[in-house]
Amino acid sequence: MRFADDLVCCFQYRDDMIRFYRVLGKRLEKFKLELSAEKTRVIRFSRFDRSVRKAFTFLGFEYRWGLSRTGKPLVMMRTSKKKFHASLAAFRTWIKKVRNMFRTAEIFKKLNQKLRGYWNYYGVSGNSKMLGNYYYEVLRILFKWLNRRSQRKSCNWQGFSEMVKHFKVPGPRITGYWE
Question: Scanning 17, 49, 55, 88, which has its CA 20 to 30 A from the CA of 159?
Fold first, then answer.
């Protein structure tokens, strides 16, 4: 069973938005549901109104207006800063927990799975900078905590880079495109 509790509605005309917003609460009451007042809001998100630089966050992405390579207005997506930092914190917690429990090969195998999942979700066109930042930070965290497994330093950055190549750690990858 899947639950849909997040929703973004876009309208060309303000009157349509007002009419929809009035009816939405009544419609949800029929199913014994209600709108969260602190999470529900109406924003003007128009490519024509350049004076108002609005952005909103939805499902881990920040949406804002930008220009395509051809100079046409385009909705740009990038990883929200809150989700970016939460993902890094979760990775840091994970590596601290498993660094002494598993062998290096097993850690890299699980790392590859985690990165592939991250690239599949956040790998949309226009988000390559945030993907690159995430990749660099994950490798930096992994290097730090693998070197803390004993009193001796396991490897230097060059040796670590060779391990990354050996275990075929996937780099940032765009999986979804906007036209």
Answer: 88
Distances (CA, A) of 39 to 53, 103, 172: 20, 44, 32
SS3 at position 13: coil
CA gap 147, 103 in Å, rounded = 13
Q: How far apart are CA 130 and CA 67, in angstroms?
A: 18
Residues 86 and 159 in one domain: yes
Classify residue 151: in a domain, yes or no: yes
Helices (H), the chain: 14-29, 81-98, 104-122, 128-146, 157-166
Q: What are 74-121's pLDDT values in tens digits?
A: 888 999 999 999 999 999 999 999 988 899 999 999 999 999 999 999
Number of separate domains in the chain:
2
Kindly state whether residues 70 and 86 are assigned to the same domain: no
Which residue segment(s) compose the domain that 69 sits in?
Answer: 14-79
Among the listed residues 57, 81, 51, 54, the one whose alpha carbon sits nearest the alpha carbon of residue 65: 54
